[in-house]
Amino acid sequence: MANPAHEVSAREVHAKERSHKSDVEKVEQVAASxxxxxxxxxxxxxxxxxxxxxxIGNGYTSAMVKDEPAKITRKxxxxxxxxxxxxxxxxxxxxxxxxxASWNRHKGRDHGDxxxxxx
Length: 119
Hints:
Layout: H1 10-34, E1 42-47, E2 51-56, E3 63-65, E4 68-76, E5 79-83, E6 87-94, E7 97-105, E8 111-116
């Protein structure tokens, strides 16, 4: 007996999921090997009366300043801004990823640059 058009067997659904998953995995493998990830996680060190660190997670969706959560905002394709109660941090990207970063205090004229920490 034939199934109506709106009924699909479990075997057909599983086969479609499996084929889609393998296609997605293939695309991810090709992209991972050929395209640099501009938004990979980074760790920065700055100096403001002592060293402090800024950690930005993969995809630039989360950030920590001095081990406390901070807000990250995409201003344009090549510039992200990280803010917390004390600092405004500008992160600049180029075609390969991180290019440079600098910080300013919300109050006052204190400012400085960051050094990229490579582990």
